[in-house]
Amino acid sequence: MEKKACIAMVPCPGHGHLIPLLEFAKLLLLHHGNDFHVTFLIPTLGPPSPSTIAIIDTLPSNIHFTFLPPINIQDLHLQSPNPVPQMILTVRHSLPSLRQSLSSLSSRTKLVALVLDQFSLDALHLAKEFKISSYIAYSSGAATLSFELSFPKFDESVPESEFLDFEQTMDVPGCGYASFKVKDLPDPILFHRSSDVYTTYLSVCQKSLLVDGIIVNTFNDLEPEAIRALQQGKALRTPSPSVYPVGPVVAQPKQKTEVDECVAWLNHQPSKSVLYVCFGSGGTLSQEQINEIAFGLELSGHKFLWVVRVPSEIPNAGYVIGEKEKDPIQYLPPGFVNRTKGQGLVVPSWAPQIEILAHGSTGGFLSHCGWNSTLESIVHGVPMIAWPLFAEQRMNAILLTDELRVAVRPQGDKEDRMVKRDEIAEVVKRIMDHNDEEGLEMRKRIQDLSDAAAVALSENGSSTKALSSLAHELLNKSI
Ligand code: UDP
Questions:
Q1: What is the similarity comment for this entry (predicted)?
Q2: What does the pLDDT read at residue 233?
Q3: Domain boundaries 261-454, corresponding CATH code
Q4: Which candidate in 65, 240, 366, 430 could, as Cys together with 233 as Cys, close a disulfide (CB 3.0–4.6 Å)?
């Protein structure tokens, strides 16, 4: 049997969850590759999408992976198209094949730990069964984690009724910078309390308290109070899971031989002149909102690179299921692409985000504030327009605007939340105009955060130390 300890990692479907787990595995092996190897056991809803396969294909040879047999969406008997039950139930239905894979791994290797996404916690009992320790590689920041660990108590404290009161505030330990209303918090809690979305989410929050440790993709200078609250166990029961802030864990820009279309276009644009517009791996907008963005970008006069998706009234319609076959470009207003030829580039469905954010011509990011996008923008020092859509993105947007002050947020219409073209043009100018004092200050603040992120990941940085103490704990458990 091999001397190195083996870690099994189980992501849940969704690129925003798969990518940070893969990047965490790369980081662990970069620093502690002599001690560990990693195998990914990947549950999928339907066959893996081309972009999932493209992501997996870039893995270094010391990370092994197995796609578990795909789950059929009809077998999940979903009540709603929300991603939370989709992700959790996909993992639940994959448990027999996951157990088999773990059994095979443990017969061949020195299996020491199971690292789960929070939405694959249904597999937690397998850690007990195989007598190994259990961790969550948490896919959002410390503030959201602090909320999720406190949420079961909050739920108990509210008398059973149809919905939580959206206007009620909840104190999130370590987040004194904001008074979060229920409507600002992760969206599963806005559902009926007996719905599958609410109940599966609550069970995730409850189970998160039961693991040995939680690896968080954040760093001390980004969320100092929330990290402290977690490490002091303020949001937790006792004994608390250990908390390891090891971030920012984000992918490195690839050095490709063939130049991608987006990068080729950026190569011809002036420094920091382009606004990158992307709503994560599966965020979607209504047709009317797509039109307003198109006209707003045109009106702003600033350069843009826009990843366009097929419209939907549901903001996370494409999250787990993946790309649609239709061509999204046909949903743009007639004549838009021609009129903006010199001003912008539209890309269907997917773009190399890391390479775009790392490019010197990119000067701003209109983002849905998914946690990976947030960290990627910070790492590359790109100020943001915060446009949260679903999940915990409103919390991330509040952190970016109110606490860190590195983003502006359009208000939208009070009634229907639609953001009109004039407001879009105005926020674009606020971050892209190089004479705008507010924009320049935001640029400076996000550059400072980017520098702090680099320090956290340096040899003696706080995140490198947290990673070492995690590796130490894992090795001790393997003896
Ligand atoms: N991403 C990308 N190209 C795209 C859209 C997304 O490379 O066109 C990547 C992005 O860099 C990030 C991830 O997909 O790493 C999205 O994660 P995030 O947490 O921001 O949002 P989610 O997709 O979970 O809503």
A1: Belongs to the UDP-glycosyltransferase family.
A2: 82
A3: 3.40.50.2000
A4: 240
